[in-house]
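notes to self, project folder thing:

trying the whole complex as one job this time. last attempt i did each chain seperately and stitching them together was a nightmare. two parts in total, labels are on each line so i dont mix them up again. if this works i'll redo the older ones the same way
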Amino acid sequence: MLPQEKNSRSTGMSLLEVIIALTIFASLVLAASMTLVSGMAHRRESFQRYLAVNALRDRLADIQETVNLPENLPQGEGIGAVYSKYDSKNFLAADLPSGQVSVTCFANETLVPVALGGPQDLNFDGDAQDNLGNQANGTDLRLIPLTLTVTYTEDGIIRTMTKHRLIARSTD
Amino acid sequence: MLMVVVLGIALMSLAAVSVQMSLFHSVAQEVQEDAFTARQLAESGAAQALARITEGGFTTPSSGQGAAGQWVPFSEGEFLYYTTFDAANNVSTVRSWGRIAADPSPSTSTAAPDSVLWNGRGWLVQGIEVFIKSVKYIPETPIYMGNGGIQKPRGGFSWASGVDPADPSTWVPVWGNPTSWQSNWVPFEASALSHPVDYLYNGGTPAPASSPHPYNIWASQNPIGQYNVEAWFKNSASGNDPTTKLTPPPTTPYYDTSDPTSLDYPYPIDPSIPDVQDFADDLWNTYSGDPSATKLWEGSHSGTYGDMSNPGITFVTGKLKVNSGRTFQGAGVLVIRDDYDPNVDTNNKPSINGYLDIYGTFKWTGLVIVTGWNSAMYVRPGGDATIVGALFGEDSVQSMGEISLDSATLMMKIQDNCRVLYSNGLFTTGGLVNQFLPLAKKEVVGSREI
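result (full assembly):
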């Protein structure tokens, strides 16, 4: 009888052992979950950066198309329309939460930032002192430095991405 | 217990794999963003090269100093471009790269990425190749007006109230202060030659081609120029048929006088005409430093400037006056322009205007360009002018704080014989002045990643 009692006691788990096992298991599950959640956040963040890049790419393509159109200022077409159409304007970035793209056109030759090659001759008249930031003189623009900033919200945090670009007319 | 540990380890492994994938995805995304940035740098360099080719008169621009191109800081990185030029086909090929540091200590290589000397360690590079085709503009009518706007109070027309420049039926006699000169009788011939290049030095006075001939009389860049030209002729004929003073009258089967939008109209609109001011600026930028070019200052001049065997470029800054009893003649390209220099002048107005003032005899074979602020052409009583080739005219007007390239029609006061005889053979390949014509039309004909 004694050996039998001894065997039955050795095959089970004590309450303490169960609690320890569950604690370890729960800790591992918690750690794994936190890691997975963190990874998902990473992926979401990188996906939104991908969308942000796409928003900038789309806006640049839109500006290039405007630049390449024949000059028609009332219709907002042609290189002369770029400053009034895009400078200091915000554009919706539809795929991004609260996303928008803001554009800055540097049409005053003396105020082109050094990082963008300024001061810079933008109408190729031989100097870098002209202010081409109005519709009448904007038609003289031949090269436009741009800054595009996309802003969007991610988990309540406002994120931004800024890119710079020179743009010129590619059709005659 | 063992089972719990095994399950836990498996779970952690899965989590670790997921984290690695997320990190990988994140890094890949970061690289993609960096590639986008480098791409913008490459395209910025290409845009600068393109603008320099299309607007600056360059055929082989490169970044920084030297033909090979240098890395130029821009935004978060640098760009480098250089250009090669295929003279046989007038094609400029721009190779442009953008690079951003992908490593804290990238190589210090200054070579272009297509060079054997290039060391790309630590750089993320994107490149683009752009092909730009340049075309010489071959004039196809005797007379060209630039943008042909309306200038007040002088040069071109000042319209009375209620006049619609687009509707000739509303036109009334020109008014302004002073009264426009176009009411004078104009013994004017705008025609073509059947024998193109044998006038000044190889023969006598040529007869214009007999009617019909396939060339338009006059071309403008836009409808305003067309209205001005038509009104000019109309007023020259004292309000009568604006074609009556032309030799031959544009009433031949080659002309479609019913449709002003037709290219067969005697005064067609041709938007492919280059801006005359740009055309003159290109010539100045290309040839003003050439020792073989003649540069005259304003005043009275006579003599011979180039001939059929030795055509050249002659610039006149300011008024070119040909005195009575004197002859000014030559062959090649004659550019008469004002002295406005945007690098120096800040008053938005030249100190001297460019114009042609003929009291004596003026004979030119080739291209005559009269442009600048308030530019004009006068043939005074007793004067005699003959141009074999073509006449380009444009008046740059003051606009919003600086001299604008959007221009008005050249003033013309023709009080004695004036003949502009178009000669196609001068301008086409191998012709007398073909070599001097600027590459006026430039367009991107292709691009690819490199």
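what i see at first glance: The first helix of chain B runs from residue 2 to 54.
need to look closer tmrw
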